[in-house]
Amino acid sequence: MPRLILLRHGQSQWNLENRFTGWVDVDLTEKGEAEADKAGMLLAEAGFHPAVMFTSVLRRAQRTGAAALEAAGLSDVPVIADWRLNERHYGGLTGLNKAETAEKHGDEQVLIWRRSYDVPPPPLAPGGEYDFTADPRYAGQPIPDTESLKTTLDRVQPYWDAEIAPRLRAGEDVLIAAHGNSLRAIVKLLFAVPDDQIVGVEIPTGNPLEIELDGDLRPTAARYLDAARAEALPALP
């Protein structure tokens, strides 16, 4: 039966600065690089050898995945990058400090923007510093100006169905190096987590989540490879 590992990127510079990052292409911190290296050692200890790694087009995910593969002695694994595995687009919150935003708009409103399933932040104004419409990585694509977790899932699921699930159904092991919300969307799909509970699912940076699947891609077992840093997992369906 196939194994899937979900790997959230290591700590980024804007994670450290407590800023809403979304699609901004920030890099890893030294801590994030160390988390990626440790993730690779954990992959090696688990005997995990994926047939392919899927990742986003953002460097923090790509660098985490590449460093983990190198540390595991798996640098030959092919890599497929796609924007649909990007982090959730934080709209008009992009770049803002989370604490300062809470002071301005109130803790309750910011909590709704961050943690509700289907309420997006205000849209990103066109033409600003974080306007991604001219980025060649997204040429011809339906670029959002804000996203909720629900609309993040709406773009992740077709990519999962078309590109990732067939590899797993063929019996291949797969690594996905991506982001907190794109991986949360996949967890919702696999574990059938209710809308009102998925926002409470946390995925720690740099800690590989190993999921064993049956032939119908239903989880039969799940564990974080670094048990000391593990978050609570959803119940198996």
TrEMBL record:
Physiological role: Catalyzes the interconversion of 2-phosphoglycerate and 3-phosphoglycerate.
Instruction: Spell out the catalytic residues.
Output: 9 (tele-phosphohistidine intermediate), 87 (proton donor/acceptor)
Where is substrate annotated to bind? 8-15, 21-22, 60, 87-90, 98, 114-115, 180-181
Record has Isomerase as a keyword: yes
Q: What is its EC number?
A: 5.4.2.11
Q: Provide the reaction this enzyme catalyses.
A: (2R)-2-phosphoglycerate = (2R)-3-phosphoglycerate
| GO molecular function annotations of the record | phosphoglycerate mutase activity
**Pathway it works in:** Carbohydrate degradation; glycolysis; pyruvate from D-glyceraldehyde 3-phosphate: step 3/5
Does this UniProt record's set of keywords contain Isomerase?
Answer: yes
* Keywords associated with the record: Gluconeogenesis, Glycolysis, Isomerase
Q: Which PANTHER family match?
A: PHOSPHOGLYCERATE MUTASE
**Name under which the protein is recorded:** 2,3-bisphosphoglycerate-dependent phosphoglycerate mutase
Family matches, as PROSITE patterns: PG_MUTASE (PS00175)
